[in-house]
UniProtKB/TrEMBL annotation:
It holds the Pfam family MctB. It comes from the Bacteria. This is Copper transporter.
Length: 304
């Protein structure tokens, strides 16, 4: 007869065998496993070091390119926009530094800047759409302007601005429209300092959520300027080339075939690219430049 003591001894023997097996197995595997893990860790460390070197090399190249653009940018663009009139339009949030940098390169290229129009946040604020619509369809409406058949304030406002900024209509239309926009807090610029031009640089900034009213309003203005005969370059930072940013919207729409873009215009290099892209636009050449998605090349090829 099997006693309780037999059962107890059997169970203890089983656990002792398991413990001995674990110890023996661990001892046998410890050497190869540890060696393999160490090799993998050393490999990953080496790859990390290589990547760090590559990043440093690329950063040095970017820094050198920026320094080159700062030092020689004006020489690269000299004469490319000689006797051309250019209007600068800042979208809401566009920094003064970026716009001033672009303006400096445009001037170095020989262009005459006819004005700097800065749009206010109210222009792209959906809550003010009804006010904008009433403004442009009322007594302000230039006599020769045929507005699009829509109640969309974005399209109506864009059509009105494009009409007067490109020099269409009567000489007094531009000042009348801009004065009304200023009084309604849709622009922050002094209307007296702005004259029309067929060549336009639109400066944007920052990532905007896809399908957002702000991005749609900005690209509507770009499309209106182009469709009414403007030669347009849209310049922004990397953020503007992502999501619903103005550069991203141009690059992902039919406007891509007619409007050039630059996605690093907050750098000296991008400001030179913007100027060269506008010079290309005067010769019906369109391109998309920078480092963000949708760019065709880092910079335009200088002509001449």
């Amino acid at each position: 007869m099997i006693s309780f003591r037999y059962h107890l001894v059997s169970i203890v023997a089983v656990f002792l065998a398991l413990a001995v097996g674990i110890v023996v197995g661990t001892t046998a595997l410890n050497g190869p496993v540890t060696t393999d893990l160490r090799k993998q860790v050393n490999t990953l460390k080496g790859e990390r070091a290589d990547l760090a070197k590559q990043v440093k090399t690329l950063q040095n190249q970017v820094d050198n390119a920026g320094q080159f653009a700062t030092t020689f940018g004006s020489q690269l663009v000299t004469g490319t926009l000689k006797d051309k009139s250019v209007l600068l339009i800042g979208l809401p949030g566009a920094t003064t530094g970026t716009q001033d940098g672009i303006a400096a390169e445009l001037t170095a290229a020989g262009a005459t800047i006819t004005g700097h129009l800065q749009l206010a946040h109210d222009y792209v604020d959906q809550s003010g759409a009804s006010n904008l619509s009433s403004l442009v369809t009322g007594s302000l409406h230039p006599v020769g302007l045929t507005l699009p058949e829509t109640s969309d304030a974005r399209l109506l406002g864009a059509a009105t601005l494009a009409y007067v900024l490109l020099g269409s209509g009567q000489p007094t239309d531009l000042k009348s429209v801009l004065s009304a926009f200023s009084a309604s807090h849709l622009i922050t610029s002094d209307p007296k300092g702005i004259e029309p031009a067929k060549m336009v640089v639109v400066v944007g900034t920052g990532t905007i959520a896809k399908d957002d009213y702000v991005g749609a309003a900005e690209v509507d203005l770009v499309n209106a300027l182009q469709s009414k005969g403007g030669q347009v370059v849209v310049a922004g930072d990397t953020g503007s080339a992502l999501g619903g940013g103005v550069v991203a919207l141009v690059r992902s729409s039919a406007a891509k075939a007619a409007v050039s873009t630059v996605d690093n215009a907050n750098s000296a290099f991008g400001q030179v690219s913007t100027t060269l892209a506008l010079a290309d636009a005067a010769n019906s050449r369109v391109g998309h430049y920078g480092t963000a998605p949708g760019a065709d090349a880092l910079f335009p090829t200088p002509s001449g």
